[in-house]
Design a protein that fits this description.
Helix content: 55-70%
Number of helices: 2
Order of helices and strands: HH
Shape: elongated
Largest sheet: none
Radius of gyration: 21 Å
Length: about 100
């Protein structure tokens, strides 16, 4: 562990490095990005396309009428955003656990 000038420490404990700053894990290697390459492309597609697809599905399944389709689209979009956020959190937790086991 190392202390970084101007970097907050918890109760005087030196920083062990994290992916939130340029410090890295403390052994001189740069911090790992949580998503890179095809994982980044897949995550971006997931977080954009799933809510969009559910918005379209909600709009189409809502039935006739402009108000019903609008309401169905909004509900589908909200459901897609919640689903993407929940699965994103799950993936982040899993990635953090994998990172901890590697240390």
């Amino acid at each position: 562990m190392r202390e970084l000038p101007g970097h907050p420490t918890d109760a005087g404990t030196p920083c062990g490095g994290c992916t939130l700053c340029e410090a890295g894990p403390g052994d001189g290697t740069p911090p790992e990005a949580p998503y890179a390459g095809w994982r980044l492309v897949g995550a971006a597609a997931w977080f954009f396309l799933v809510p969009l697809a559910l918005a379209i599905a909600g709009s189409l399944l809502a039935g006739p009428g402009d108000a019903a389709r609008w309401f169905g689209g909004v509900l589908g979009l909200a459901a897609g955003m919640l689903l993407a956020a929940a699965l994103g959190r799950r993936a982040s937790r899993r990635e953090a656990q994998e990172r901890e086991t590697r240390l």
